[in-house]
Structure formats: C-alpha cells, structure tokens
Amino acid sequence: MNALSREDAHRMLNKVPEVTLFFWIIKIMATTVGETAADFLNVNLNFGLTGTSAVMGGLLLVALLAQLRSRKYIPSIYWVAVVLISVFGTLVTDNMVDNFGVSLNTTTALFSVALLATFGLWYASEKTLSIHTIFTTRRELFYWAAILFTFALGTAAGDLAAEGLQLGYTVSALMFGAMIGAVTIGYYVLRLNAVPAFWIAYILTRPFGASFGDLLSQPVANGGLGLGTVVTSAIFLLTILGLVAYLTATERRVAGGA
Q1: Given a cut of 80, is residue 255 above it in pLDDT?
Q2: pLDDT tens-digit profile of 75-128?
Q3: Roughly how many angstroms between the first and final C-alpha of the chain, as a whole number?
Q4: CA 129/CA 134 separation, integer angstroms
C-alpha cells in the first residue's frame, strides 16, 4: 500500500451508505430519473445527445470530485453523484446506439465485459469487492467505475429487452423485478454470499428502473402510461430529495450523539 493509500485508510470513513431499504428505494428512483431526465434534456429541451452528454458529464465530474474530496459518507453528495452517474450512464449507451449505430446486443456485451474487467482489476488490487470497505481513494475509484458500467449495462439490457426483443415496458419491468426478487430470496433464504448478491441486484435495478421509468413516461401509443418525462422526473426527484434530506438529518443526529 502506498503512502497516499495508508493516509486515506486512516483519515477516511467508509464512503458508501449502509444497504438498507432506503438505499434500494433511492437507487431504483435514481435509475428511473436517469432514463427520464436523459430523455427530457435530449428531446424536450432540444439539447441533443451530444449537448446533453457534455452538460451531464461536466456536472458529474464536479459531483465526483466533491465525493472524492469528502472524508466520509455524506448523503447529499453521494446521492447527487449517483443520480448524475445514472443519467450519464444512460447517455453513454444512447450515444453508442443512436450516434454510432452500435447494436443493443453489442453494447450489452461490451458493457458486460467492461464491468467484469473492472471487478477483476478491483479484486486483483484490493482482494475484496465489498462496499463496506470503501475507505481509500483507490477503492472508491474502482467503486464508481463499476457503478458507471452497471448503469450503462442496465440501460443497454433494459432497452434490449423492451425494444430489441419487443417485450414492452411492462413485461420488461416485471421480468427484471422477478430477477431482483430471485436474488433477494437467494440472499435471505439460500444464504447467497452478500457481495455477489449486492452487485447482481445493483445491476438488475438499472434495467428495472429504466423499464419502469419508460412505462410511466412514454405515450400510451408506445406502451407507456403517458405521464411524460417532466412529470415522471419531477415525482422521483422530489421523492429522492425528501429521502436524502431525512437521511442527512439522521446522520447529523447520530454524529451529534442524539
């Protein structure tokens, strides 16, 4: 371990929140916002994929720098970074498919390989993939790289299921939801190891959230409920803000010994 890593290990607390029900609720909502907000900026505000990608990439960079500079888990900073990386991960896939003509089959395969490579390098370097040990800068960089690829992969897989395989948004959401349920049963009933259970569930929540977001926002003629990207994004963003505000207040009470 180099000097910077030793220093970080002493100075930093774990930078990732505990995996609770609140964690999964906010994460799924963030994935939904990633889908609907990207569509809103791209289509409704006429930013286009390139313009939207540039704006969101800049905001994500600022958020990640703030996250990396913090010495402990701060709910507001962490979840802003998650929402932004969700939007940016969606845009990475959309750019490859729409601007460069890469098929959904290929993008799904490419991001699967990229994610597996990230996990491989992470484990080779740190001998663990546990999110309960994110207390060095190097581990946190591996963590955020993995998160980015889970969002890009989830977007590709969700679009492949709903559009490429023509399953539709409802069937896709139900299918990915059932997979998440199977992982939950595997963890609580069959004693599946916590680390793979977490990452499998994390990957699956992205296409589930994307399919659910499309189901709510897309026009009825396209198989959606017609709420639109503005309403859907607003509902989920406000819910995320409320939950993050609650978690922030809770963290402060705990820190203050209340």
Answers
A1: no
A2: 999 999 999 998 899 899 989 999 899 999 999 999 999 999 999 999 999 999
A3: 37
A4: 9
* Tally of CB atoms within 10 A around 5: 15
Helix H segments across the chain? 3-11, 21-39, 48-69, 75-94, 104-126, 137-159, 168-188, 194-217, 228-255
Residue 165 DSSP label: S
Helix (H) or strand (E) holding 142: helix 137-159
92/215 Cα distance (integer angstroms)? 21
Which of 204, 77, 203 lies closest to 149 in space, CA to CA? 203
**Amino acid identity at 124:** A
| Joined tokens for residue 163 | 């559009």
Cα atoms in the 13 Å half-sphere on the side-chain side of 165: 13
Residues 6+ apart with CB under 8 A from 97: 103, 104, 107, 156, 159
| Spans of all domains in the chain | 19-252
Q: Which residue has the tokens 């540039």?
A: 54
